[in-house]
Every structure is written in structure tokens, then in C-alpha cells.
Specification:
2 domains, single chain, three-stranded mixed sheet, alpha/beta, Aminopeptidase, Glucose Oxidase, domain 1
Length: 491
């Protein structure tokens, strides 16, 4: 059976085809998007094609769906340029192409009063550096802005006193007190005055996610109406300087952010190869199928989803009949709070004490070249990995013993779908993934950025990882016993 896996893995490896479908044909798979629903249905179709059992879990729903269309922007002036920007998901688009003049946001009530009439039809530059999130228009955000306004009112009074003092003491003037910075300080007042939208400086590559704080509260009766643009920081500086010099120029944006009537459901899709001897004991592997939509989610986490799917295909097509059940989990809603795997754990889908190990893949598109395990698991993993000896001289696989004291069992949610399993004491040991050939990969370059694209995945790493995953998972599923949890966590 393992020989068949090796043959298929070398002659007919479809890992990159899975990524192509998820990232290029379907695209960014945001919660509430048509793309995520399409991805769920596509995964189901593959399990059916491979003759596998599967089941779905309806994890939740969102009131309103969001689907991103294309977006364009330009500066209209003698030195005009195309604008490089993005908008957080679940924020408003434009009403067709919209052109307007540009202003810098007011920092005090006096400044607001002075420019109130000019705000209508304006694009407004707001302060601060974008952290990828939308402007917080919740009650909490309103409270933060109100406090900043009150502080600046006090600063204005003090500065007026300093001006009077400096007028009488020109030889020894006092420095003016800078205003408190709070992005979009007069958010509601500017909207009421008729602004087209807000523009904030953003580092490259653009890191733009979703309005997670407010997305679930949006209904079709209170859809966002004002654009929230995160602009290339270098272009922002050019535009800001033009405004300070009171130059005449315009910005035009055409942003096609679309909302669909909900509720929109989202689901876990779980493929099953049932155990022949211990059907109620499990080896699990998983990745999240949802993704942010500024890029295409090719790395985060089509890379992991593709390895899970290809491991399933290799085993199913090779006629695998493991002793214990293998579950191939495509989790939903990881990016909105790790909700898919949480649902699986908290609803006791399976007996957690009967899970030998949960393998999670949610990182870079790197090569599975080893695994580090507690001493009590070492011989079992050596046995499971034995067929890999000699499979690839280019990517040799090593099993290592973990040194030092057992780690503390986590008590708070981590950063991926292993978290809720680990909190319950389930082994969540995953593969060591390395940039074996030195492709100079940097995860920060793609994580939740516009660069999360198909060409950031490495085919040789991906294809090899799928074979390794299939063989190791099959080997662990064929042991005569569950993996020992001795030394996994501190007692």
C-alpha cells in the first residue's frame, strides 16, 4: 500500500492542482463569501470522487455575506499615478467611480468647524498607521474618539494660552502642545458632512484583513456606506504633502465590495477512512479552508488544505485499510476565531481520549522533513516513518526525541486549529517544516497580505509533504495501540 502511495506521489501528485483550484479558480475564501461555499462544495465533490465517506458540520452563520470584486484608484494631477491600496473585508465600496478632492482630518472641534463645508465630496486622510483593521465604528470606538476629542479640546485651550504668552515673550517662547492622535477622530461628524471615504497609510506588503469586530453585527438594513482605504505608505506621503501645500488635484476610486443577503452558513468538511480494527480510535489531520480575500489564500491556508486533501487522495486511491479511523479535516472560520475546530472539540464529535494525534498544517509552504516527539512516542514514530527511509535522498526524514521537561498544557487559545485540541490534552504534534533548498521564504511577507498568492507555494515542497503526511498518518493509524501521552504535557 505504501509503495502505491510512493508511485502515485511521484507520477500523479495533484497537490498543486488542489492549490490552483482553491486559490486561482475559487479565490479568497472569506467567511460569508460565495468563494468559501464553493470551496466547501468542491471538497465534498473530491471526497465523493475518491470514494470516501465524509460528513459536514454546520458551525455557524453570518447575517450578511461579503464578496470582493476588483478595485481601482488613481491620482488625477500633472504627476498623476495609479494608486496601490486595499480595503478591509466587510467595509463599503464606492458607488461606481467616485472622484473628489482631498483633505487632512480635523484634530479639534475648531478645525472641524472651519472645514465642515469642504468635507462634502472629499477623500479624507486620517492619522496613524494601518494595522490591517477597519476603522472601529462600534460603541467602544466612539468612546475612544470622544475621549480623544475631550483631550484635544483641553490642549487647544492650553495652546491658546501659550500663544498669548509667546506674543508677549518672543525671546523665550514656549512650545505648543501636540494634539492627541486618534484616526478618524470626528468619524460620525465627517460622515454626516458627506465625505466619500477615509484613507490611511499602510506598510507594504499591504496587510488588510476584515472588520471582524463588526462583521457579525451588520445586517442588510445597516450596511456600511463609507469607504475605508488602506493606501501604500509612500503614495500616502506624496498625497499628504500635496494637501499641506494646498495643491489642486483629485483622487478617483472604483471599489466593488458587494454584500449578499444572509444568513450565510459555514461548515467543517471531514473526510473519513474508517478503521478496520479500531473504528472508534482516531488519527486526525487538518487545515483551515477559509482565508482572507485581499490575496487568494494560497499559502494561508490552501497550502495546508492541499496537503490534507492529497494525503486523503493518496491513501484512498491506494486502497488503504488502516486499523484505526483517519479523519481529514477541512476546518472553517479559523480566521474569525478558530471556530470550526472549536466546534468539533466542544461538541465532542469524537472521544478526545481516543485521538492518537492531531496533525495540523497552517504555516509556510515548506517541506515536511522531520518530527520531534516525546520519548514515549519515539519508537512508534520511528516505526511509522520507516518506509520513508530511502524514499527521497533530497529530503531525508528524521524523527527526533524532544529534550527537556514536558511543556505546560495550554490554557488559552493559540493561533491555529490545534489550539482547542491541545487545551483538552490531545497530542497535537506536527511536522518540522524547513526551507530545505533555501528559497528565502518569509512568512511575514504573505501572512494576511496581498502577497498570499499561488506563486508563493513551492511545488517540490508541497508534493513531498503530501506523501510524507500520508505515510506517517497511515503508520500511526496502523499501530496496535494509541500513542502514549506520557511526557506530552506536565501533569
Amino acid at each position: 500500500m505504501v509503495k502505491k502511495v510512493f508511485e502515485l506521489g511521484k507520477s500523479d501528485n495533484t497537490t498543486m492542482n488542489h492549490i490552483d483550484i482553491l486559490a486561482n479558480r475559487i479565490g479568497g475564501r472569506l467567511i460569508g463569501s460565495h468563494a468559501l461555499t464553493d470551496a466547501e462544495n468542491w471538497v465534498i465533490s473530491k471526497f465523493e470522487e475518491w470514494g470516501m465517506e465524509y460528513y459536514t458540520q454546520e458551525v455557524g452563520s453570518i447575517n450578511v455575506g461579503f464578496n470582493r470584486g476588483p478595485w481601482f484608484g488613481r491620482m488625477l494631477s500633472e504627476d498623476g499615478m495609479q494608486l496601490h491600496f486595499a480595503t478591509p473585508s466587510y467595509t463599503a465600496g464606492t458607488k461606481g467611480p467616485q472622484m473628489g478632492h482631498v483633505l487632512i482630518e480635523p484634530k479639534s472641534r475648531a478645525e472641524l468647524k472651519k472645514m465642515k463645508g469642504a468635507l462634502k465630496g472629499a477623500w479624507v486622510l486620517i492619522s496613524g498607521k494601518s494595522d490591517g483593521n477597519a476603522i472601529d465604528h462600534s460603541a467602544e470606538g466612539d468612546s475612544i474618539r470622544a475621549e480623544a476629542i475631550a483631550q484635544n479640546d483641553s490642549i487647544l485651550r492650553l495652546n491658546n494660552e501659550i500663544k498669548a504668552y509667546n506674543s508677549a515673550n518672543r525671546e523665550n517662547p514656549k512650545e505648543m502642545i501636540p494634539y492627541v492622535e486618534c484616526p478618524a477622530m470626528f468619524y460620525k461628524e465627517m460622515i454626516e458632512a458627506g465625505v466619500l471615504g477615509f484613507i490611511q497609510s499602510a506598510s507594504l506588503p499591504l496587510y488588510v484583513i476584515a472588520d471582524r469586530k463588526n462583521a457579525h453585527a451588520i445586517t442588510y438594513n445597516n450596511l456600511p456606506t463609507i469607504c475605508d482605504i488602506k493606501l501604500n505608505e509612500h503614495q500616502y506621503k506624496i498625497i499628504e504633502q500635496k494637501v499641506k501645500e494646498r495643491q489642486t488635484f483629485f483622487l478617483e476610486f472604483d471599489i466593488r465590495n458587494h454584500f449578499s443577503i444572509g444568513p450565510i452558513k459555514y461548515r467543517n468538511i471531514i473526510g473519513v477512512i474508517k478503521g478496520s480494527k479500531y473504528p472508534d480510535e482516531y488519527v486526525m489531520l487538518g487545515a483551515h479552508i477559509d482565508a482572507y480575500d485581499t490575496g487568494t489564500g494560497a499559502v494561508d491556508d490552501a497550502n495546508g488544505s492541499a496537503v490534507v486533501l492529497e494525503a486523503a487522495r493518496l491513501l484512498a486511491m491506494s486502497g488503504a485499510k488502516p486499523k484505526r479511523t483517519i479523519l481529514f479535516c477541512l476546518w472553517t472560520c479559523e480566521e474569525f476565531g478558530i471556530k470550526g475546530s472549536k466546534y468539533f472539540v466542544e461538541n465532542k464529535t469524537v472521544d478526545l481520549e481516543k485521538i492518537s494525534n492531531y496533525f495540523n498544517r497552517d504555516g509556510g509552504p515548506l517541506c515536511a522533513t522531520g518530527i520531534t516527539v516525546p520519548e514515549a512516542m519515539y519508537e512508534d514514530f520511528v516505526k511509522a516513518a520507516a518506509p520513508l527511509k530511502g524514499y527521497s535522498e533530497e529530503f531525508p526524514f528524521r524523527v527526533n526525541k524532544r529534550r527537556g521537561e514536558p511543556r505546560e498544557r495550554p490554557t488559552t487559545v493559540g493561533r491555529s486549529d490545534y489550539a482547542y485540541f491541545a487545551m483538552k490534552g490531545v497530542p497535537t504534534i506536527s511536522f518540522s517544516e524547513t526551507d530545505h533548498k533555501g528559497y528565502n521564504f518569509t512568512y511575514a511577507e504573505v501572512w494576511h497580505t496581498e502577497n498570499d498568492l499561488y506563486n508563493k507555494d513551492f511545488p517540490d515542497y508541497m508534493e513531498h509533504s503530501s506523501v510524507v503526511t500520508a505515510v506517517i498518518v497511515y503508520g500511526i493509524a496502523n499501530l496496535d495501540h494509541l500513542l502514549s501521552r506520557k511526557g506530552l504535557y506536565k501533569e
